Amino acid sequence: MEKLTIALDWTPNTNHAGLFLAQQQGLYAAAGLDVVLLSPESEAYATTPARRLLAGEADLAVASSETVLSYRTATTPVEVTAVAALLQDDTSAIAVLAASGIERPAHLDGQVYASYQARFEDRIVQQLIRNDGGQGTLRLAYPPKLTIWDSLLTGQVAATWIFQGWEGAQAHLAGVALRTFALGDYSIPYGYTPVLVSTNELLARKKESLTKFLHVTGRGYQLAAADVGAATQLLAQTGLAAFADTAFIGASLTLLQPHFLTESGEWGCMQLGKWQAFVQWLVAQGLLVPTTYTDPEKLFVNL
To answer: What CATH number is associated with residue 171?
Structure first.
């Protein structure tokens, strides 16, 4: 059995459904892989998944497109490369409570936004406001990452970035009305998120096992896309508290089901055009200086 460690980007959730289904169904073991899914929950997100990857604690990390670009444009560039898109479409959005009276991004001027401190995050949200006619005068707060969602629900902050298939589903089932602003609706061509990333060194050294892992993981996501009810019950059988509420997990998977696979039923595949659009937008906004390390053709690979 070859051991592979995957650093998750958040506590276990339905974005990770295919990973946990492949593990629960014994697909990894049948392929000769001992897969460890490492949650940041154990240390309250003290270390990002990408840092775990670069520290040698993981072979793959779940991250965002910005993570790839951030490391490649560091003072000492690091060749972090995306190898699979967990979702084919962006299901994230900037969220506010419907009761807040904030009806559009421009109304976020002067409001408090809870940030996850990703490199481009704050500037992206400020530009979202400007694209809607506002000034972008956002007030930024940086609470502990695992408390951000509760800080929105309790009114401590006015807005934050959520995944509509997770926090959005939680709010719906709890009877909490949200208003959400998707970046694509305001001329921001946001990239793939989340993605699985690795380093070029690991991709060269462990290409066979990583390719096998991605193929098996794809089967897990195909299970999730094929039958939401069955996938919900299987996730509950993992014994993880995050998957215990089957009503919620079923609702979440129903929202995500159309986004797991390509139209031809493949998982993980990425298109050059989507990477190009996001990189070009970041360059146009002055958020990114193009270098050989930010060539979109080198930012990802479909193994």
So the answer is: 3.40.190.10
